[in-house]
Amino acid sequence: MTSRNKILWTFGLFFCAVILMAGGLAGQEQGQQAAAGEEAPAVQENIYEGAVKTAFGKYLYLPSASGFDIVVQGQIQNGDATTLVGKDIRVKGELLTDKPSIFRADSVDLKDSSGQYANIFTRSEDLVAADYLDSKTRDAFQALTITSALKNDEWEGKGQVKVFGKLQATTAGGQPVTYIILADAKGREIGKVIVDSFTDYAQYYLKKLRLFDEFWFYLNVKETVDKRVRTKSRELFHADIVFCGLY
Fold it and tell me: How many domains does the chain divide into?
């Protein structure tokens, strides 16, 4: 390397370092302004685009909005969020500080075959997500350890709990029924929880977890199955599912 090239190379490194330092200081200053309550630079409007991966009720998931659940509060043209699965949309809205994983949709535009967008939803009411559970609330759900269908003290009086298992849809007495199958470390069935209902938020997460066979179910524990029935069927108790997740 000639002396001239060495000088140019050194100058280039110095110039890059100056730019990086300036950017870091600018970011730090903005953070300090926010912490001090000073007005920070305006944030660009939140817009996400892409094909809807999954949806249920008012909830939908876009890969471009990874980490957030998009909530469409109100009537969408020709249905609800479920009708948008597989379709290309553009969503404008806002991240909610009191619900950190929720992105509230203020408008939804649908892309047609020519690549043009047409509005199919404009929010006209406040967001209502009574079934939404934030991570702090979920942390309060106690993980149950059930060892026997006969040990009803392992679940009775526990209130809000979580269990690890898999869903099974079948029939009992000629009626459709959904169970959560619980197994021990060797995969042997311990018992099954009778599912009475799902919240929309739980149904939405079930769809997001479609590639997994087993995960955590967050439950409201209800009445215990009669001992005589429990002994034969291993049906433990009734419950409502309020959330599902990998942890």
Answer: 2
Query: Is pLDDT above 80 for 15?
Result: no
Residues 6+ apart with CB under 8 A from 131: 199, 200, 201, 202, 242
> Measured between alpha carbons, how far is residue 139 from residues 133, 161, 201, 247 in Å?
10, 10, 17, 10
**Torsion sign (Cα): 86, 88, 93, 97:** positive
Instruction: Count other Cβ atoms within 10 Å, centred on residue 181.
Output: 16
Half-sphere CA count of 51, side-chain side, radius 13 A: 4
On whether the CB atoms of residues 215 and 164 are closer than 8 A, the answer is: yes
Question: Cβ-count burial of 111 within 10 angstroms (0-12 exposed, 13-18 middle, 19+ buried)?
Answer: middle
Instruction: Record the tokens describing residue 219, joined without a space.
Output: 């439950």
- pTM of the complete model beyond 0.85: no
Q: What confidence score (pLDDT) does residue 44 get?
A: 41
Instruction: Give the residue from 88, 122, 156 where a domain finishes.
Output: 122
For residue 4 the two structure tokens come to 């001239």
Residue that has been written with the tokens 């199955």 in this structure: 225
Say if residue 181 is in the same domain as residue 116.
no
